[in-house]
Q: What sequence folds into this?
């Protein structure tokens, strides 16, 4: 897969487009987890709640990404009871980390290649694991995404690349 240049935006909080983009990616982060939860361990394995946060942040900047990152776990919990309340702080933390790392990478490199997205995913997962370890006090629990969530990380990398580069190029 080659790296292509795509048009990346940096929307501001005073623009209606920011809220429209965040709402669309929030809708994706509501629908995708519901589909994934139809499969046994679909949530922990496929990590669907992060997918559109990555895509939205990368394409539309940190403001739209941060809104998506904060609202997606909270809306999923309020509407569907997932993620469970006990893990909600960790999911929000990782989601915000993803938005910050993706926004930095998009602004710094101005492209969305597979290796760059892999770096984003590995960075937020590593930092998130450290935060989760501090929160739970248990490395085995904190490293769950690296133990069973590799398919989800691959989905974020390759699926995120496809969506950013093929579906929302303009």
A:
């Amino acid at each position: 897969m080659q790296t292509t240049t795509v048009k990346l935006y940096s929307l501001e909080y005073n623009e209606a487009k920011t809220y429209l983009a965040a709402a669309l990616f929030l809708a994706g982060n509501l629908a995708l987890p519901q589909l994934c939860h139809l499969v046994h361990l679909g949530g922990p394995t496929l990590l669907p709640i992060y997918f559109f946060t990555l895509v939205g942040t990368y394409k539309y900047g940190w403001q739209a990404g941060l809104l998506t990152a904060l609202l997606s776990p909270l809306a999923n919990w309020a509407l569907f009871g997932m993620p469970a309340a006990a893990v909600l702080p960790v999911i929000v933390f990782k989601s915000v980390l993803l938005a910050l790392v993706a926004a930095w990478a998009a602004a710094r490199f101005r492209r969305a290649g597979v290796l760059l997205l892999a770096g984003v995913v590995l960075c937020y997962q590593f930092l998130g694991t450290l935060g989760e370890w501090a929160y739970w006090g248990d490395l085995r629990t904190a490293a769950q995404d690296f133990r069973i969530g590799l398919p989800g990380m691959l989905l974020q990398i390759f699926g995120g690349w496809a969506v950013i580069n093929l579906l929302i190029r303009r």
Q: What stands out?
A: The radius of gyration is 15 Å.
